[in-house]
Amino acid sequence: MKIASENSVLIKDGRSLDLLPHVDTIVFDKTGTLTKEQPAVGTIRCCGNYGENEVLLYAAAAESKQTHPVAMAIINEAEARGLNIPVFDDSDYRAGYGIKVRIGGETVYVGSHRFMEASEISIPQEISDMQEKCHVKGHSLVITAIREKVAGAIELIPALRSETAEVIRTLQNLPQIKDMYIISGDHETPTRFLAQQLGIEHYFAGILPEDKAEIVKKLREEGKFVCYVGDGINDALAMKNSNLSVSLRGASNIATDTARIVLMDQGLRHLPFVFGLAHDFQKTAI
């Protein structure tokens, strides 16, 4: 345990070192785990008479009480532009889809394309075209609607953690690791783009938070010994369903509380070290 702590790894109980050598499948959450916690705001496309700052301001106001990476990216961009974010009156948050709020008597919707469709809001062709371009590039799109009409959309550009590619290569070279998976709420194209970029064969795209746990359960039913690596509040159930779970420091409280191992440097750099430590521990025990 001392060696682990000296390398910025918190192992909550010694059983984790016994379990790690049995792991043959690693499942990674995408956003905030493989990629940096926060994407960057790219192009802001406006509809009607709305301007960039107005679209951004309404989105930031709606997301102002959220702490997930997309919300923080939008809020930070609004603050960087010196915008005064208003307070909303009431809200209806739907995890994995979007949020509906009341701001100054206006009903504001902020979220994905499917959230707008579920809210029966028509998507202008220019926004649909933008979404297609974003998907090809592996970017995400957050749409803002006011009074049931789309006001604009915000492009969000993900960035891999600097260590991700090297960590994945190292883990893939471990004889015990047979499969790796990426789970993402993003659509097919950006998820496939990332998987190809990292050389990971398997991925699940367009996954709602409650479905992550079911995927892990099915993998275990197939006989796989699963280590789940995630950082969000939406990962807690999947972590509980896995054989072993790893979280990053700075992740949601429920994720770090649930995970058996926490990488304290807020990145993936020490994940291969954890597997190596378990291997050495096993040899010493024998």
TrEMBL record:
PANTHER family: ATP7, ISOFORM B, P-TYPE CU(+) TRANSPORTER
Source species, domain of life: Bacteria
Alphabetical keyword list: Membrane, Translocase, Transmembrane, Transmembrane helix
UniProt subcellular location: Membrane
MF GO annotations: ATP binding; ATP hydrolysis activity; copper ion binding; P-type divalent copper transporter activity
BP GO annotations: copper ion homeostasis
This protein's GO CC annotations: membrane
Stored Pfam families: Hydrolase
Matching InterPro entries: ATPase_P-typ_cyto_dom_N, ATPase_P-typ_P_site, HAD-like_sf, HAD_sf, P_typ_ATPase
UniProt key word ATP-binding: no
Organism placement in taxonomy: Bacteria, Pseudomonadati, Thermodesulfobacteriota, Desulfobacteria, Desulfobacterales
Protein name: Uncharacterized protein
Signal sequence residues: none
